[in-house]
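Predict structure. Chain length: 267.
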Amino acid sequence: MNELQSRLLDMLKWFHMFCEKNGLHYYVLGGTMLGAVRHQGFIPWDDDIDVGLPRDDYEKLKQLMNDTTFENRLILEEPFKNKDFIYPYCKLYDTSTTLIENAKRKVKRGIYIDVFPLDGIGNTKMESKRNYKKIKKLKTLVTLKVVGFRHGRKFYKNVGVALFRLVPLNPGRLLKELVNECSKYPYNKYAYCGNLVGNWGGEIVPRSVMGTPALYKFETIEVYGAEKADEYLTSLYGDWRKLPPIEKQVTQHDYVELDLRRSYLGV
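Prediction complete.
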């Protein structure tokens, strides 16, 4: 475990204890869940943590944390409170660190855990796909308005993005519309649910797969994940037990600046 993973693990340990203390149900999601089951901790080449809470518990978490700093360094940032925070979900930041992820935007924050809302989406697979289409379109619009040019993308696509960014659409309004659209589907009233604002196609699974949060070993702690781990991971990754080729065992992040000893607050 490297130093960044160790710091993130400390944050996850605190988050787990905070949720337990306040009766909040959460699940580790995506690659974090894959790491818990396949590696009993971090995927060795991965350096992020994703968690999700059913929408009601997600809203309670925001109320409980509400711009308060915990442990003298941990703070939850949520949509619509700061102009440069352009995500439709929350992030738990360690304010004693500095991180710049995007060379174009150069927004300074600290290392973080992504905190997603989990929403319902439909009562059948077909209905879920249909309902998710509008959400997916809104996510694409938000991404294009905010992120813009990306290295590695074909030139003509970047030209298209540049032209689209000239269209007078308000990113904040698009973000609000996206959050409102996701919130239309109560988690407990639909047979299918998902992390609809995440980056990987909604991560839509039957709600019975998430079930009652179950404990899984994660490095030196235990965390909550989907009750039916195999079904959850198979839905997201297919043959999740098989490791990717060596050349693909690399981190997805390319940080512009990372300092684990200096606060981005400049204190």
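Summary: Confidence is low (pLDDT under 50) at residues 148-168.
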